Amino acid sequence: MILQDCPKTIRPYLLPKQKGKLIYRCLGCGLESGIETLLYTCPSCSQVLLIYDLEFDRLKKISKKTWQQIFNYRKMLTIPALKGIYMYHEFIGPIMPLDAIVYLGEGHTPVVEANAFMQDRAGIQFYFKNDGQNPSASFKDRGMASAISYIHFLLQKGYLSDVLAICASTGDTSAAAALYASFLNPRVKSAVLLPHKKVTGQQLSQPLGSGAKVFEIPGVFDDCMKVVEALSDTYNVALLNSKNAWRLLGQESYSYEIAQDFEFDMENKVVVLPIGNAGNITAVMGGFLKFYEIGIISTLPKIIGVQSEHANPVYRYYLEPDPKKRKFVPMTVKSSVAQAAMIGNPVSMPRVIHLVDMYNNMSDKQKTFFVDVPEQAIMDWEILANRNGHIACTHGGESLAGLVVARQKGIVDKNEIAIVDSTAHALKFSGFQEMYFKKKFPPEFEILPNPGIVNTPELIRPKDLKKVPEPGRPLKGTELRLFISRISEEIAKILELEKV
Question: Is 0.85 surpassed by the pTM of this model?
Answer without folding.
Answer: yes
